[in-house]
Every structure is written in structure tokens, then in C-alpha cells.
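Z., the sequence and structure:
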Amino acid sequence: MGSEKKEEKVRERIEAVLRILKKQAPLSMKQYKLCGVQEKFCNDACIERFLKAKGENVKKAAKHLRAVLSWREAIGTEHLIADEFSAELADGVAYVSGNDDEGRPVLIFRIKQDYPKFHSQKSYIRLLVFTLEVAISSMSRFVDQFVLLFDASFFRSSPAFLNLFMCTLKIVGDYYPGRLHKAFVVDPHSLFHYLWKGARPFVDLWPLTAVVSSQDFESAAEDSIFISHPRTTSLRFDPSPKLAASAASASSRFSFTVSQFDSLKPWYLSMANTHIAVAPASPSLAGATPLSARSHSFASPAARSAPRLSVPSTPSSTLPRTPRPSFLQSPSSLLFPFKKEGTGGNRAARDREAFAQFIRFYRRPYDEIIYRGKMKAPLGGLVSIVSPNVKMQRRQGGQHQRI
């Protein structure tokens, strides 16, 4: 009974949104087709996503939906085809790499730094919308979200990439509400972390974004390769010294060991102190360091006979530190008392775990033919429109020949 009542309430809100759209200024023919006839964009699931984005407020959802319909009409989403982005498709600038374990399409953007110089912002927005439409058209019935992977290794300028990334998140958040599952920024410049910390409070989708590095997964892959091949493990450097059957040279600063039996490591250098106890030449040198013992040898006989006290080299390390006054604490600790230490590291670990299942899509080579095969008409261009008719004619011709 509870689920039926919830479905009835959701249905009533969807119908209320449609009534508000009809009461407002009359829609154009294109908007009417989007909202009534085609049902590709403005269906019940779409209106439900707009209601969730606006906190189940019917009026705000209807206003937002009408603004999105006007924007789609201005962009011309019905006329976006692959022939317009032939160069981008050949280079693999933006494409759908595949689907994850939950069936969500994974979009990869490998935009170079020179791309904004030779292309306008409008052309990039059209490319972004085209890629999103291809991903949405390839979704199954029970999937309504996608994943974004941004390869930032091609950008040497962090501010330029930040502008491009924030523009993408704004378009996805404003005109595709509820569609983004997770967005990953892979291998950005070191300065991007600081810029993103200052800019992310102004982005609505920043809780769904993560900054990761692919090098963390490369080291894990190398370790698995070494473990799986026992011969390669013997080639690794072993830091443990071998004292048996070896000639050693000891001193107070370092030890130098020559091994006669290990052909892979003929010598070993260690900065560890040796365990050989050497008696001091004079009772006054007890507790003296090697550096102070040398200066002590040039002293007068009276100074040599005087007893020497051992003084630690860093006295400040032994003394307790002065506690920090409470009035020097940051005001953020008063505004956000729930924040604990170490949460940043936990978030980074969670982001790496979440990105582990998408690293295969990031490293998968781009294939234009496979990507074009995922495009449905009319997004696929002239080839996707003509090829079904050609196939039907060939089938009919083959049947006539058999008859």
C-alpha cells in the first residue's frame, strides 16, 4: 500500500508539471514534439528527475524543464550528427568507451590543450551534447546515469583545464539533472588540486567528482606481474645485508660489505651503525661523537683530562612543544566542528577504490568503428540512416534470387 501511494503522488506531480507547461506561453512545434510526441527526452522519468533536482517542487521543476527545452531547441539537438564531428571522432576527443558492471555508459574526454584555441566554446558544447546524447541513446531501460572520465594529462595549464571542466559540469548539472553518477579527473597538473579546492564550492556537482592518478594503479599492476613470475622476483634489490662469508669494513659513519657468493649484488652499502664495540682511546672521550672527538684531539691537556658530559645534538627535540593557543585556531573549526582529522585521506582512498573499476575503460584503446556502431539514427549520420535501407534491399534481393 505504501509503494502504491508513493507512485500515485509521483504521478500527480508529473501531471501537475505538464499542466503548468501547457498553461504558460504556448510551446513551439519542436518543443511540443520533444514533450509530447517523441517522448525521447521529456518523458515521465525525465520529469521525475527534474522534480528530484528541485526538491519535489512542481513550479520550480516546470520552470527548469521549460528552460531546458528552450536550450535544446537553440542548440539543435535533433540535428546533431556524427558528420559534424568527423575530426573529433577520428582523434578520439570524446567518445563512449563501454558500459560498467551496472550497465552505465562510460564517457571519456581526451581533449588537448590546443583544442580551445582552434574551436569556439559553442563547438565544444555541441560536441559535449552530441556525446551525451549518444550515451543516453545507448542506455538500457533500467539505466539512467553515466560516468565521465577526463584525461587531464594533455593539459599543461591548470586554469585552462579548470575552466573547461567547470563548463562541462555546469552543462551536465543544469541541462541533464540526475544523469551524472561519477566524474573522475585523471592525472591532472599538480596545481589543479589547489585550484579545484577553491573553485569546487561554486559547483553543484562537486560531491560527485574525484581527482585520481593512474600511476597508483600502474604500481599495483607491476607488483602483480613480479609476484606472478618467480624469476623476476629474484632480480629485485634485497636491502638486507649478508654478513656470512663476506669481508666487511666498519666505521662510525657507514659499513661497506663485499659479498663473494652473490653475483647479482657484488657489493652492499648501508648507512646503519655497526654493532662492533670499540673502546675509546681516552676516558674523556666516552660519550663523544666522531665529529667532537676530532676537535677534542686539538685541545689542551687540561681540557682533555676534564670529564666530558654527553649533550644531545638536538636539545629542542627532547623538550615538550608549547601548546598552540586557542585564539589562533581557524574560524572554520567553529563553523564545521564535525570535520575530523584524516578525512581527506579517507576520501582519497575512497576515490581510488571507486576508480578501480573504471581503469580498464581509461586504458582501453580507442576504436572509431566500435564507437560509431553505438550511434543510433540520426546521431550516426548518413551512414546510420542509409545502411539499414541497404541491408534490407540486399536481403530482399537475396530472397528474390532464391525464389
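Residues 2-78 form one domain. DSSP finds 19 helices and eight strands in the chain.

Let me know what you think.
H.
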